[in-house]
Amino acid sequence: LDRTVALKILSADLAKDPAFAERFNREGRILARLNHPHIVSVFDFGKQGPFLYLLLEYVDGVNLREAMQAGEFTAGDSLALVQDICAALKFAHDEGILHRDIKPENVLLDSRGRVKIADFGLAHMAVRVWKGEGFSVSGGSPGYMSPEQWASGPVDLRSDLFSLGCVLYEL
User: Fold this and answer.
1) Which of residues 165 and 33 earns the better pLDDT score?
2) Strands of 42-48's sheet in order across
3) What pairs with residue 114 in β-bridges?
4) Helix, strand, or coil here: 1?
5) What tens digit of pLDDT does each residue of 121-153 get?
6) Which of 16-20, 63-67, 131-135, 153-157 comes out lowest in average pLDDT?
7) Residue 76, exposed/middle/buried by CB under 10 A (0-12, 13-18, 19+)?
C-alpha cells in the first residue's frame, strides 16, 4: 500500500501457549476495530511460522517519556495533550476496551506533535466490568497502576484515568 508500517513480533514461546494465542487472536480482532485519530491503528495480526505478529501504524516520532526528557511542557501543552489522550480513552472505553497500561512510554507523539496511544497489549474487554461483574487483573506498570489494579481486583475505566492522572502529574 506504499506506506511505512511497524511490525511487532512476539516471542515464539508465547505462540506455543494455546491460551495466550487465543487471547492474542481475540484481542487482535478487538483492537483492529479501534479507529480513532489518537490511537495507533492495527492493520493486521496473525501467526507466521512460530511467531505471532501485529502489523501497526508507524508513528514517526518519540514517546512521551522521550519528549519530556527533551524539554519542558507548558501547562497549556500538557492540557492539550491530556485532552487528546482522554478523547482516545473515551473512544476505547465506549467500545468496551480498557488500556490498562497508560504511561509515557505508551503515548507517542508524531513529528507534528500529534498524540497516538499505543500498546493495547494488556487491553481487555470491559463490558463485564460495566455490568458490575468485574474481572481480575494481571500486568500493568507499577508506577501508574490504580490501587485496585495493584490488588488484582476488579477494574474499570477509572483505572485508565488514574494512570492518566499519574502521567499528567509528571508533565
Assistant:
1) 165
2) 5-9, 51-57, 42-48
3) none
4) coil
5) 645 544 333 334 444 344 557 778 787 777 777
6) 131-135
7) exposed
Residue 72: all three cell numbers together:
519542558
Phi then psi dihedrals of residue 107, to 5 deg = -115, 115
Backbone φ and ψ for 61, nearest 5 degrees, come out as 175, -145
The pTM score is: 0.83
* Closest to 89 in 3D by CA, of 162, 21, 28: 162
- Under a CB-based contact definition with an 8 Å cutoff, are residues 120 and 27 in contact? yes
- Site of grid cell 481475540: 26
SS3 of 8-23 = EECCHHHHHCHHHHHH
Which tens digit of pLDDT belongs to each residue from 69-91? 998 889 999 999 999 999 999 99
**Can 60 be counted among the known catalytic residues?**
no
Q: Residue 129 gets which letter from DSSP?
A: H
Catalytic choice (84, 101, 119, 156): 101
Task: Give the Å distances, CA to CA, from 144 to 18, 35, 72, 123, 160.
Answer: 30, 25, 21, 15, 9
What mean pLDDT is predicted for residues 42-62? 92
CA distance 93 to 85: 12
